[in-house]
Amino acid sequence: MYIPMIFFTITIERRKVTPEQKWARYQQEQAIAQWEDQKHQIYTQFPEYCIR
């Protein structure tokens, strides 16, 4: 029995990032970095309460 081969192509388009989206992502990364820094500061002040 003959099984026909089906050829197809997948095209992936790059998502266009607007300057507003770039700025929002930058602000999000900065907020996460600030939150991590605050978490680290709390850990250094009270290490006995942060141990799991």
Structural class: mainly alpha
Low-confidence stretches: none
Number of helical elements? 1
**Molecular shape:** elongated
Largest sheet: none
Give the terminus-to-terminus CA distance: 63 Å
How many strands in all? 0
SSE order, one letter for each helix or strand: H
What does the average pLDDT come to? Answer: 82
Helix proportion: 40-55%
Percentage of residues in DSSP E strands: under 5%
> How large is the radius of gyration?
24 Å
Give a description of the structure.
- This is YrzI family small protein.
- Pfam families: Bac_small_YrzI.
- It comes from Brevibacillus panacihumi W25.
- The structure is a single chain.
- The chain is mainly alpha-helical and about 50 residues long.
- The chain has a domain at about 15-45.
- About 50% of the residues lie in helices and about 0% in strands.
- The protein contains 1 helix and no strands.
- It has one helix at about 20-45.
- It is elongated, with a radius of gyration of 24 Å.
- It starts with 18 loop residues before the first helix and ends in a 7-residue tail after the last helix.
